Amino acid sequence: MPVTALVSAKSCGVTASALALTLASKRPSLLAECDPAGGTVRAGFFQGEVGAGYGLYHLAAAERTGSDALANAFASHLWPMDEAGHRKLLPGLTDPAQAAALERTWPALSEVLHVLADEAGYDVFIDAGRLALSSGQLHPALTPAPLLHRADLVLLVVRGTEQSLTLARHLIDPLATELAERGTGSEALGLLLIEDGPYRAHQVAEALKTPVVAALPLDASTAGYFTTGGQPPRGYGRSPLLRHARTATEQMEAASSRRRIQQQYPARPANPHLAGVLQRLSERGGPPRG
Ligand SMILES: Nc1ncnc2c1ncn2[C@@H]1O[C@H](COP(=O)(O)OP(=O)(O)O)[C@@H](O)[C@H]1O
Ligand SMILES: [Mg+2]
Question: What is the value of pTM for the model shown?
Answer without folding.
Answer: 0.95
